[in-house]
Amino acid sequence: MNVTIKDVAKAANVSVATVSRVLNGSASVSKESTQRVNDAIRELKYSPNFLGRNLRKCVTNRILVIQPSSDHSLYAKIIAGMSDEAEKVGFDIVTAISNGSRESEKRQMDMLYNRTVDGAVLLGTSLDKDTINSIAENFNIALCCESVHGADVLTVVVDDEAGGYDATTALIKKGHTKIAMISVQGDVISSGLRERGYKKALKDHGIEPREEYIWHGEYEYENAAAATEYFLSLPDRPTAIFAVSDNLAAGVIKTAAQRGIAVGKELAVIGFDGITWCERFVPSISSIAQPCEEMGRLVAQKLIANITEGASDKGRYTLKHSLVLRESTGD
Fold first, then answer.
1. Which of 8, 24, 173, 206 is the most exposed place for a label (fewest CB within 10 A)?
2. 8-state DSSP, 263
3. Does some domain include residue 81?
4. pLDDT digits over 46-79, tens only?
């Protein structure tokens, strides 16, 4: 049986008129009532065909982009690429920051239910596959930069395993055999794939991975500092470190410098992402660079096609990275 606006009103314990105002983005509804209506819509899987009129009249030409933080130029580059592509066809990009909060993301995604945006792109998400797939039943959403196991939605990423492999191989070609890695704990797919690439590169070059050379922590600078102190305290300390992000690589370089270690000579360091300030850092940071603008343009192009043409592209698009060697690896 089709769910109606009356069913939503009953479940949320509000009037049909209140549900209608929420769906049309009216500011006259209290935050509490709006939340109850949106919760009911999600639970009942209410279809966006609710208005009983041509959906074209409800097109906003806006795409929501949710990023987990605001201090990462990686996201800024992706959003810039999305904006360039969206502008070509009269779409605008609306950004929101979740700070890694699942509740914030769900609240921000209410813009879909309210019809204030036509689609959403998640640049790293704390939502699980079931939640994502449930939302995707009625709305156009996509993942970019970070995928989610089991999420059946449009996804644009780089080959993280190949990137980890290339970063490690670059260090091996410079004569390093004692190569450590700073990874991230938990179910972060990109980090796990980069670690897999690291281990594969070592084995392919006849080097057995050493558990004491792998550190799992968080993405914050403090994690990089703690990891570096640990590696430098080992009796047989590594001569090179691969970090799964440029932010972590910067933390390694600063901590090593504070210990009087010349990065690029005594210790080689390589990161991942290719963010803007890598070339400005001292020493400049070697990195696996993601094609951020290209990723943004592609996810915008595919998502807008899904919105405007009724397409249902749920493909996974993997773009090529590039290896950029700088002073931190002795280049």
1. 206
2. B
3. no
4. 764 544 443 444 578 999 999 988 767 889 999 9
Residue 51's pLDDT is 41
Which CA distances in Å does 78 have to 74, 104, 129, 325, 327? 6, 21, 23, 22, 26
The answer to whether residue 317 sits within a structural domain is: no
Residue 57 confidence (pLDDT): 46
d(CA 295, CA 158) in angstroms, rounded, equals: 8
> Both tokens of residue 14?
């509000």
Rounded CA separation 131/42 (Å): 9
Task: Judge whether 291 and 78 are in contact, CB under 8 Å.
Answer: no
**51 in Cβ contact with 58 (< 8 Å):** yes
pLDDT at 292: 95
3-state secondary structure string, 1-50? Answer: CCCCHHHHHHHHCCCHHHHHHHHCCCCCCCHHHHHHHHHHHHHHCCCHHH
- Quick check: 242 and 198 in contact, CB under 8 A? yes
164 and 52 assigned to the same domain: no
Distance CA 47, CA 21 (A): 16
In this prediction, residue 47 carries a pLDDT of: 63
> Is 257 within a domain?
yes
**Domain of 16, in residue numbers:** 1-58
Q: pTM of this prediction?
A: 0.82
| Segment 140-165 mean pLDDT | 96
- 164 and 52 within one domain: no
> What are 281-324's pLDDT values in tens digits?
999 999 999 999 999 999 999 999 999 887 789 999 999 999 99
CB 273 within 8 A of CB 295: no
